[in-house]
Amino acid sequence: MPSPLELARRGDQHAFDALVGPYRTELQVHCYRMLGSLQDAEDVTQETLLAAWTGLAEFEARSSVRTWLYRIATNRCLNHRRSATRRPQPTLPAGVPAPASLGEVAWLQPFPDALLDAVPDRRPGPEARYESREAITLAFVTAMQQLPPRQRATLILRDVLGYPAKDTAEMLDITVVAANNALKRARATLRRSSPPIPDTPSKEDEALLERFVDAFLAFDVDAMVDLMSDDVWLTMPPAPYEYHGRDAAHRFFSALAADRQPIALAVPTRANTQPAWGHYHADPATGLLHLAAVEVVAVRGGLVSALTRFEPEVGRWFGLAPTLRP
User: Fold this and answer.
1) Where is 124: in which H helix or E strand?
2) Which of 30, 205, 274, 281 has the fewest Cβ atoms nearer than 10 Å?
C-alpha cells in the first residue's frame, strides 16, 4: 500500500493533510516566536503549508517531514519580516507621563494558552537550552524580536527546538561556521539585555494575583503598586511606550485614575503561559459591556513583574466577546 507521502505526491489532499496535520499548531508557535504576531504567524503558517503542497515533488525525504516544514516556515518568516510594513501606532492620552523608554516591538501580540494545549509534547533536541513553555513567554518572544532575523532564527532552531548546528545551517542555507557565529552573537545579546523569564505561578502567586486583580478592578493605585516588583515593566502594544519601575508605574496609573472609565467585569484567561484577563466597560447609554483591553500579568519572586496591555481586537483569539449583556 502506498505511503501517505507517496499518495500526497500523487495529489491526494487527504493524504497530505494526514502528513502535515500533526505539525500545524507547532509550526504556528514557531512562526509566532519568529514574528511576535499571532496574526502574522497564522498567515505564514498557511503560506508554509501551501508551499509544502506545491513543492512536495521536490522533497527528497533526506530529512523528516517535520524538519522540512520547519525549514520552509523559518525562511518564510525571514522573508515576511523583511517585507513587513510599519503599522500605525496610537498616541498616549493627554496628561499621561512620558514613558521611560520606547519599545521596538510594537507589533507584539499575545498567544492563547488554549492553542498551546494542542501542541504535541515533543521533546526538543538534546542541545535545547529552553523549555518549550518558557520559550513562549512574552519576555522571551519580545527578546527574540530585538535580535537580527538570522540570529533569531538560529537561536530558536538551536536553543528552543534543539536542532544541531549542521541541520540548522542546512535549513538556513548558510555554513555551519556562520550558524555557530550567529548563535554566539544571539546568546551574547540575550545575556546583556534579555528581561528575566517570569515564574510559573505557584499557589502563593495565585493569591497574589487575586489581590492584584481586585486592586486593578477598584483601580486602587497604591494597592496595585504595592504588589509590584521594584523593576516592574508596563507595556501596551501596539503603542511603543514602556514604563519601568514602581515609581513610573505609580505616576502612570495615577494619571489615568482621574478620567478612567470604571471596569464593570474582568473575564479570566491565559496568554503565553501567564494569567490574563479581558476587562469590560459598561456603556451608560445601552448598558452593554464592551471589551476594553486584554491584560497579561507576569510574576517573579512573589511580586508582579510585568503588566502588558493589549488592544481589545486580540480578544477574539481568547474567546472574549467584543460585547456582552450584563
Assistant:
1) none
2) 281
